[in-house]
Amino acid sequence: MPALTTNNPSSSAASSSSASSSGPAARTTYEPLSSAKGPAGSSNPPRVSLPIPIGNVALNTVNDIEKARSKAAFDPAKIEEVIRDGRIDNESRRKIIKTLDADEVFGDWKKRMLHFNREQQMAMSHKACRRLLDIAERDEWDTQEIIEAAISLDLQSPVTIHWVAFVPVIMSQGSPEQVERWGGRAMNHEILGAYLQTELGHGTNVQGLETLATYDEESDSFDIHSPTLTSTKWWAGGSGLTCTHGIVQAQLYIKGRRYGPHLFFVPMRSLETHEKLPGIVAGDIGPKTYGAFGGLDNGWVRFDHVKIPRDNMLGKHAHVKKGGEYVKPPSDKLSYGGMIFIRSQMIDRTGWMLSRGITIATRYSLVRRQFRDPDAKEGEIERSVLSYPSLNRRLMPLLAKSFAYIIAGRRMRILYEEMASQLESGDTTLLADVHVASSSLKAYCTKQSLDGIEECRQALGGHGFSAYAGFSSLFPDQAPTVTYEGDNYVLCQQVGRAMLKIAGELQRNPQGANVSNTTDFLRALATPNAIPYTAPQTAEEWLRPESWTGALRLRCARRVADLQAEITQAGRRFVDLSWDCVEVAKSHAEIVVNAWFTEGVEGDAQAYGEEASHWLRKIVALNGLTSVARDITPLALPAAEGRELAGYKSGQAVLGPKSVLALEAAVRSLVEEVLGQAIPMCDSFGWSDWELGSSLGRKDGRVYESLMAEAEGNPLNHAPKGNSIDDVGRYTYSAPNGGKYISHTFREELEPLFRAAAARSGEEPIKGSGAKL
Amino acid sequence: MPALTTNNPSSSAASSSSASSSGPAARTTYEPLSSAKGPAGSSNPPRVSLPIPIGNVALNTVNDIEKARSKAAFDPAKIEEVIRDGRIDNESRRKIIKTLDADEVFGDWKKRMLHFNREQQMAMSHKACRRLLDIAERDEWDTQEIIEAAISLDLQSPVTIHWVAFVPVIMSQGSPEQVERWGGRAMNHEILGAYLQTELGHGTNVQGLETLATYDEESDSFDIHSPTLTSTKWWAGGSGLTCTHGIVQAQLYIKGRRYGPHLFFVPMRSLETHEKLPGIVAGDIGPKTYGAFGGLDNGWVRFDHVKIPRDNMLGKHAHVKKGGEYVKPPSDKLSYGGMIFIRSQMIDRTGWMLSRGITIATRYSLVRRQFRDPDAKEGEIERSVLSYPSLNRRLMPLLAKSFAYIIAGRRMRILYEEMASQLESGDTTLLADVHVASSSLKAYCTKQSLDGIEECRQALGGHGFSAYAGFSSLFPDQAPTVTYEGDNYVLCQQVGRAMLKIAGELQRNPQGANVSNTTDFLRALATPNAIPYTAPQTAEEWLRPESWTGALRLRCARRVADLQAEITQAGRRFVDLSWDCVEVAKSHAEIVVNAWFTEGVEGDAQAYGEEASHWLRKIVALNGLTSVARDITPLALPAAEGRELAGYKSGQAVLGPKSVLALEAAVRSLVEEVLGQAIPMCDSFGWSDWELGSSLGRKDGRVYESLMAEAEGNPLNHAPKGNSIDDVGRYTYSAPNGGKYISHTFREELEPLFRAAAARSGEEPIKGSGAKL
């Protein structure tokens, strides 16, 4: 038998600092993985059934990741402790994950969901909610803990929507009396709700909604009506099959006059029979793209002159008096609060989603080895693919983005809270700034994160196409974020408009305008030296925070100057500049992310501790520099005539060729430096193997053993036990018929056809089993 | 009742040139769509059951698209006729589509696939193949027609793989004797095959494969063996559950000496019992990401010292004599042919996939109206979203890419044929050039196309998240193309290496080197004025072909000069330049696409006719200019010292600010011009509604009616008829229980829980159905 690989397993194991005597080096055969989950009620851990020599390639993976982990220059737990402390505390979070991981239904849940069809996913979604609520009662979880559990399960269900959309709308938009009337019953699940805003014909353009709420003076009630096909309410989660009540956005009409969209509380299904109430027609809108949201009945709903009491209009801001007098909200701006709230919650969430992708991609790329280095010494094994720049130059910036969006998103939440409490007392100082920043970050971070997740999947090579890579709900679930809560391109145009407005104010009154550190860069348009900047000439100079911060600010100012010139110089209308606004918004978002990420890291520096802070600052630098590198042209290209920033001469670029070369060298050196800490950095996100649901992202590096175990146990290889939904997608390790499943339909459908064709062919038939062909 | 919309349906219908007296303007109620498919055996066309006033928004869509179509400045059929003429002729293609569209199983196939679970998809895949072969026999289709039908169905099945991978490998790599022995039986389906190359531990790095084929002199046979866990064959389509025979790539060892990977014909399952033959262990590897390839049993296979006769090594190029003498192939380069063949087939295919996405996105964006123009006159309706630059500036370049990859891909096939026939006679003149171009285009076009498809989906707004948008198999099926047949990043490095090699040859011997119009731009590194270029100063100047062709060539030369300098100036190793190669390969691919796209359009100019050629030339220009605009920096930034192109002074950029502004203006004017022909351009791809499987991409524009019909008919809204697989996912229009399905699991699982919680809450229980809340 020829020698297969050139490395020596015992020597490589010996070089691993953490290899114990019974460690991986001692194994020669593929063994059961302890994390494999058993069928409900089984007492023995399930075992894979194939005796396979494990071989050096698979053996090495454990050593590789342990070695990388042993070189950690900081304690990942310190970072996890700060950044995970959110809606619930870390201890509660760990308790929840542990409970779900060990649970007989939820332990294998993510894998089994891959095998259910739409109808089964919908049914399982209800079952999962029941079990979640049962566990919550048993273990005394509060609502925030239940929500955290549902999020951990990647569970999109009518009950989840009830908590995250229906209840908050009542609480924030209802009058005190309405909150009392409906809020408690909703929290108790006496009623189950949906939030119906978008329609078949209109989404982001809320003013274009067609559903009518017409005040009828005689009965002192509203008539809720869907006048056209396109006015059909569309998309609302839970509205298709499940919810009992809905908050419906409709155009308010009183005595023939239109007052714009308002919110109405509308009973939809009987609490006694669950039949739809008179005048309501509704159903599920069908499957979602890429199989996303299978357990959620996004619905279509039509109202045929449904009458609701006048008091069912949500009345925190505006209300209608008996007889039809409309009492308008004290300020038009108050209603912005809700949109800003939702967008402000999305930023760190997109960072967390991306962090799942990057954790999987980084861990697998570290332990995956391909191609020997041409300069390798005899006996050296193949290179870790993470050591190739084509991988690490792609992945490390995504690692930086994950931290950036998580930490900047935390700043965003704090700013939102400040703004909201200001608003309560009628103070709108922060409103404009927080509004534009939240639009800017929502549009930028959701798109960067979605692209980044798919980039992580592609970085896995061939196995990235397996569902066991762990991206099957990650990418699809993230997919709608670029359109919902305001289509990103519409938001970009809003950001562009805000930039022009502020720039104009600053040009008119350089000192008086209300700007913050995310908008004061606009002074550069009219004030010479508003952003003092010396172009870095070496990689070292680029590593100073002012180098990237200044470049980001100057670049965005250049983009805004160009946008302005398209109107003043080229005479184009703002409404036709939506494409020009895209780069303005992106470059503005990168200023905000950089500013808030920096503030977040510095603000929590004590909690992180010295070592972790040191490395987080490198991540801040990496994010800043790659943000600059994303779009160099406005810095490298002199401004065209009449588009110069104040103080810059025509024909003068911000960066010369030497600076641009140095920037790439700086990024390269940072990537190489961060690379040595990439595994502990990923560990600091705190994802458990159960949450990731990924064979390739396993914390212990046993990727090949895990893929083999999942593949062997996957239901397609085993005859189904019964017809119950509880058997669908059940992984059966070590079954007597393991790997022996025969595709019945093949034998029934195709084989007879092939035999007949062969008989007709005139060739001499194959004798026997074909083993001698 | 207040007036809802400001437009007047009768006047807008009157302005449509094609509105007939019984046309859309006459409709006031949502009507059944003629394309809805009935259940098997039904004689009446299915009807939607909801009486809904249709409304102006939905009514307008038909007028909008007909109006756009009536403005066609060329005949779309002329283009379709040329570009669709491929493996089969147009008439056969139309016949196949018509047959499948009308077929009781295949008519609703694409929609129903969304509702099957993995096990059901696998079973349905076999059923579909049977029906396909039955139809083929009935209608006398040949093999190419069967393959075309399978592709039209988006059917990834073991039988498809047998045709497109197994049979071609036998034909191209087998000796004449082997082709006779296995080829006919394979064509007849007496045997069903799989092609087993990649393993759990290795993919693109074929040299790293671990499976062994050891020659045993005594028995004059090969011993096929999987020595380690990671040597397990992984991914081969059809190998998991179905195939009877496999072509296995394994490391050939004779008398202890390794000869590298070779191909072996290995019997795997009994033709009599379909049981796996002794020594074979195999199974399905599990679901694929995003639900892709559900009907294909990608497999894992292990060989435990399986003996096959010596003659089972595929012997066209090399063979082993009795006793163990290895007879090597006449040229090492011959084996390149296969890889180049597969890659060369992928280019137009990626264009076709993208063209589906862009057809859907363009049609829907035209008929979708959102927001009124601020300068609109009273009574004007909302703007078509396609008129917004943020949409058309995204979509029109993707339209151009679709044509570019389809037409350049056709040139690629022709060049491959030329090269292959040269190779047959030992002539390798074309080999190097075709090899690098195929790698470059494969890496570039697959990625651009995959990103472009998802971009098209995102451009649809909220409804892009519905499976009825038609992207649920489009994107997932395209997803693996970036890694299979050579990971794109590995290919980019090969392109970079080739560029350096050719550049070096040209520097040593400017006149003698073997270059073509896709590589001779490299002269610019050493020869002054090799690419004569005057930077365009106006949009008009940019519209001349030499402006973008020259810019693309100069840009790539700059990238290669930088790559070279990283080695000679910065002292980095080539193996560490994989990231630097990415932009080199991209910019090279854009030269090739532009050159071949141009040649393709000019070469077929007569067949297209004058009008269509005129518009295709605009598409060539749009693709060329947006390719330049994709990455302006190397043109706008002067070269750093020692990195200048010959004839350029240090500090001198190719393009100044005025040129860059003019470029964007040129793109804008081209986009606006092409926009008026966008609908006929999409029509010229020739996709039928059945093939697109998209409510939003309907040729007649009835998008809202279609979404409503699909949503109403979707199985989740109807109680299932029976337990047979034939009932799964069956759309039930106009059923008596239409829209009245009650989620049984909700009532069983959640409702009792909620009632119990309510009872415990201490609040006064809700009286009645909750309709009064």
TrEMBL record, chains A, B:
Keywords: FAD, Fatty acid metabolism, Flavoprotein, Lipid metabolism, Oxidoreductase, Peroxisome. Coiled coil: none annotated. Pathway: Lipid metabolism; peroxisomal fatty acid beta-oxidation. FAD binds at residues 198, 237. The active site is at residue 485. Residues 76-191 form the Acyl-coenzyme A oxidase N-terminal domain. It catalyses: a 2,3-saturated acyl-CoA + O2 = a (2E)-enoyl-CoA + H2O2. GO terms for cellular component: peroxisome. PANTHER family: ELECTRON TRANSPORT OXIDOREDUCTASE (PTHR10909), PEROXISOMAL ACYL-COENZYME A OXIDASE 1 (PTHR10909:SF250). This is Acyl-coenzyme A oxidase. It comes from Jaminaea rosea.
